[in-house]
């Protein structure tokens, strides 16, 4: 009779092959401990994420974070323990892999160069690899700036840099504390806000869909799309036609579809003018 116990020895471990890739921060991207975080806040380094244990109070860190416009994310101690097993003293920060720029400076530079603003707003895109793929497409399509919220966005870490194939080194990234105020500011600057949502009645490919002027496209969260308040504020909205049974596209794919439709329309305008 076959020995059933021994027959299992050479079976492949499918869980091992299907193990998901690690997307946590590298040790050189992370600073922990009260004094170390304080010194990082006092330095010229830009912080991508600042996590503080719920209930912990440290006026020095809180005041410096406010001055540097770094949002403190209150988390349970278990979240910090997952980031590092060392003595974090209730505070951990992640160093930004890019240099954030001011949106006002980007707008001024774009207009001074005689270019048409072409921006991308990402409302709570939390997957690092989605963000990296979106950044790669944005850079390839001529987007001048990606705007992300201070809270609820993917960390721009080494995984994001790798997935973007270096595109994040060539495109401006702005981090804004409140996207609703950002939308108001863009509109006041003469920039049309276009929301990409499946709730829209307007097809992306309709003749009346105009993506040629000064524009900022909003793409929404992987979980629930664009937040209702931003949808209400948008000047117009569009949807990507879906002809199959699946009800939605991956956000990085959807972003590519919309951006390249804008490129197509803008190239026709340029050819017409020349």
Automatic annotation (TrEMBL):
It comes from the Bacteria. One of its GO terms (molecular function) is RNA binding. One of its GO terms (biological process) is RNA processing. Keywords: Methyltransferase, Transferase. Residues 30-101 form the RNA 2-O ribose methyltransferase substrate binding domain. GO terms for cellular component: cytosol. Residues 1-27 are annotated as: Disordered. This is 23S rRNA (Guanosine(2251)-2'-O)-methyltransferase RlmB. It comes from Spirosoma rhododendri.
């Amino acid at each position: 009779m076959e020995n059933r116990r021994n027959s299992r020895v050479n079976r492949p471990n499918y869980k091992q092959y299907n193990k998901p890739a690690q997307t946590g921060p590298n040790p050189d991207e992370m600073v922990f401990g009260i004094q170390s975080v304080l010194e990082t806040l006092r330095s010229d380094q830009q912080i991508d994420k600042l996590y503080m244990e719920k209930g912990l109070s440290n006026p020095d860190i809180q005041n410096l974070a406010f001055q540097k416009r770094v949002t403190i994310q209150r988390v349970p101690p278990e979240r910090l323990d997952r980031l590092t097993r060392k003595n974090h003293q209730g505070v951990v920060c992640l160093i930004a892999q890019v240099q954030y720029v001011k949106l006002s400076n980007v707008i001024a530079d774009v207009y001074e160069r005689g270019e048409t603003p072409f921006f991308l707003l990402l409302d709570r895109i939390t997957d690092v690899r989605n963000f990296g793929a979106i950044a790669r497409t944005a850079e390839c399509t001529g987007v001048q700036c990606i705007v992300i919220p201070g809270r609820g966005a993917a960390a721009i870490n080494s995984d994001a840099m790798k997935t973007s194939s270096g595109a994040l080194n060539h495109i401006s990234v702005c981090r804004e504390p409140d996207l609703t105020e950002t939308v108001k500011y863009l509109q006041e600057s003469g920039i049309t806000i276009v929301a990409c949502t499946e709730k829209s009645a307007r097809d992306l490919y309709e003749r009346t869909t105009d993506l040629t002027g000064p524009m900022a496209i909003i793409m929404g969260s992987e979980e629930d799309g664009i937040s209702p308040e931003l949808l209400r504020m948008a000047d117009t909205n569009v949807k990507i036609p879906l002809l199959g049974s699946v009800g939605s596209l991956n956000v990085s794919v959807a972003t590519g579809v919309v951006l390249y439709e804008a490129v197509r329309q803008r190239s026709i305008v340029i050819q017409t003018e020349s």
